[in-house]
Amino acid sequence: MSYESREQAAGVTLEGINLYFGKLHVLKNISLSIEPGEFFAFLGPSGCGKTTLLRLIAGFERAQAGKVYIGKKDVTDLPPWKRNVGMVFQNYALWPHMTVRKNVSFGLEEKKVPREEIEKRVNSVLELVDLLELADRRPSQLSGGQQQRVALARTLVVQPRVLLLDEPLSNLDAKLRVQMRRELRELQQKLSLTTIFVTHDQEEANTTADRIAVINRGIIQQIGSPMELYDQPKNLFVANFLGVANIIKGEIIKDGNMFKFVGDDVVISIRGENTPEPGPCSAVFRPQNLVIRKDTFEEKPSSITFTGKVIHREFLGNIIRYSVRAGSHVLSVDKPHLREEKPLEIGHLVTLQLKSDQIVFLKD
Amino acid sequence: MFSEYKRHPGQLGIALVIGIFIFVFLVLPVVKVIFVAFHDTLNGGFTLVNFKDFFNTDLFRESFLNSLYVAGMGVLIASFFALPLAYFTTRFEFRGNLIIQSLGIVPLIMPPFVGAVAMQLLFGRNGSVNLLLDRWFGFTIPFMEGLNGVIFVESIHYFPFILINLSTSLNNIDRTMEEAAQNLGCSGFRLFRKIVFPLAMPGYVAGASLVFLKVFDDLGTPLLLNVNNLLAPQAYLRISSIGIEDPMGYVISVILVVFSLFSMWISTFALRGKEYATVQKGGGGLAKRKMRPWEKVFAYGIIFLILLLVLAPHIGLTLLSLGTIWSYSVLPDAYTLAHYVKIFAETPEYLNNTLLYSSIAASIDVIIGTAIAYLVLRTKLAGRQWLDYIAMAALAVPGLVLGIGYLRTFSGYNVPWNNQVLASWWVMLVVALSMRRLPYALRACTAGLQQVSVSLEEAAENLGAGKLKTIFKIVVPLMAGGMIAGFVTSFATAAVELSATLMLVSAESDAPLSYGIYVFMQSAAGRGPGAALGIVAVCIVGLATYLSHRIVERGRKLQELKRS
Known about the structure:
The complex is a heterodimer.
Chain A: E1 12-21, E2 24-34, E3 39-43, H1 50-58, E4 65-70, E5 73-74, E6 85-88, H2 100-110, H3 115-128, H4 144-156, E7 162-166, H5 174-191, E8 194-199, H6 202-208, E9 211-216, E10 219-224, H7 226-231, H8 236-241, E11 246-255, E12 258-263, E13 266-270, E14 279-285, E15 290-293, E16 303-315, E17 319-326, E18 329-336, E19 349-355, E20 360-362
Chain B: H1 3-6, H2 9-37, H3 49-56, H4 58-91, H5 97-103, H6 106-109, H7 112-123, H8 128-137, H9 147-172, H10 175-183, H11 188-217, H12 220-224, H13 231-242, H14 248-272, H15 293-322, H16 338-345, H17 348-378, H18 384-392, H19 399-410, H20 426-450, H21 454-462, H22 467-478, H23 480-495, H24 499-504, H25 513-521, H26 527-563
Helix pairs in contact in B: 2-14, 2-17, 2-18, 2-19, 4-9, 4-11, 4-15, 7-9, 7-15, 9-11, 11-14, 13-14, 15-26, 16-26, 17-18, 17-20, 17-23, 17-25, 20-23, 21-22, 23-26, 25-26
């Protein structure tokens, strides 16, 4: 049997979710809508509530306020065993007293699927995750990656309407993690299955998800595609959480018809349509947007320059990351590394140039 | 660098002394018992004829089957008490945890023989419960008839072993195991049957095999309930009436040891499989939920009933110790303190002997336990692990068997200065008690030493303190908590040990509490004082257990402080 002929994938909608653990307000007024067939990630630091949100969709947590819809159906009051959402647990939660085959067939047995069909479907899903030969082993006899695939197969075989993944890659080593996230993405595309993925690793979210919700302290900070979040962060948290960011604190001032950003030793004239309101503000830009040189740049109206001194250097392979003290600011600068190119030394005086269209202004 | 440790003559000397002591007073008597069981007295070779005789005798065959039946039913009834309690406390947000934890020590503070006679007065044919049942409903329940009585009393006392082990197992199950099943559509009782119980099985089996072992070996309870067609009473009666030459006592001993070993093997085997039930990352314990009102009523009702049953021996014993005459009536006719006066005024030797014997035995245990713990954890002495194994093997030796072994091994010698037979000298009873309780002290001492970081000792040595000085100034003070806990546990359990005591006490002036209770309870007139002695024993042991609990708790808190 093929997995394409599944039930139509369903979207997930959350409306005004508020959840407390005792007095602790864990999820604050969360509303979002996940499209059918979408690969969606909840991204945030540990303790931000992302796992709680996932467990809420699975039915393991109960919100004090708000609604959960799967497809068009209100499942807010349904217990976990009636929701038909598949969850892959962080520790896989394979039952140690059952073989791989028993683990995988469990959900179908619960659904009273006829024996012959169970056998067919279990074989088919085990083939899909390439574990057919290991079907009679116990979970403890499998490697981490194999256990993860069993957990995935156990969930996929019941053809859930939504697939929930709770940090599924966090227990794997770095190499395997990269391989598995590619496989996950391919599988998801093949099955066109609505998938929600919880992770604290921005790289993992960026490489797999169509859209990401960045969550901090129980609040959704921003929802968007990985590139949107990186290029147009809505606040400092998002800017910082998705990669390294240089931040200069300052103020937006209206100067005639023009707007200007004024920080310590820095004045940036602002062009373009999306001019922020006057007031306290931060200028944010990425390390790779700065160009570093020992000699001076020719001044351009579209760029701003800093002069400073190298105070620290990290060799990261593909790039060298310099820390440069420029006035009261310490800026990170990435320079692509080329063979036999001599790096700048600590103490060197340097000039940095930044195109002003690479700067994002964020209200605090 | 370590070769110096290896060649340390002091360590080797201590290990040898302890090894010889344990060999003479634990291994040798047991080997002797096994040897006699298989020894052909006519031509001196190996024989199975004693076992053939045993199984050809109707009474012994019956006793053997009865013992199996009683132990099996004991496990069944104990499970019947333990399962609901374990389920409620692990599954629901429930205020019963303190109760459950306290229940865990019931079998330790009051062995079943102490309360057996009181249970007869409460649940016997003419006991309070049946009198009331007959008066109100016109029927009676044969709780205490024959084997029923033994099963009933033993399971009430020993079910906490199952409860504690099962609860621990249930609490260790990773919560996601349950959630994964719910996620796949499983819930309610099916969830319990297919996922939760199989995962908790190791704990249940460990507890159940312990109960089986305790019931199978018990001597005092059947003797006091006058049920003699069981293995342990038969061995006792043969040895005490026919003499130590009669081989049947030894055959029974071998059977008891074999079943002990078997149950202990099952128990460790079950717990070894436990690795899979332990908590993984992501929170442990079954998901708890609040009870609905009717569930609450139901749950607390069951808890209350079980508690009443568990406390029945204590209630009965208290009534008996304070009552004047209690016969064919629901409650005693009148109340008096005369029984307490009697035991303190007329027979203070029981109490004095108990305090003396138990403290000496517990001291021996702590000294040996500390020494073995140190040798095992801190030295590289070859074969040091074996000291631990052999000392722990005492767990598999029923008191009755050790008693018979002592009689057989040490009867041929006299104490030089008073010409008493060595086997019936009170010191031998003390040694037997210390061997029986050594495992408890050893585990406590080992735990205590494990909490002391080696670097603390190394710091002392680095500053010029020698090995011995380091042990007394650094190690002993730091592991004192473990040693005290070991002392108290050994003391408390030695104070109520009956089976070895029954075999080894020859004169009443040498007898401890448990023997006194046994003797008093034999006659109707002695029940009052016997019960009073029982209450005193429960108080001593209860107090000791409480103290040890406090010490262990304090140690744990200190440990946490040190880490933070």
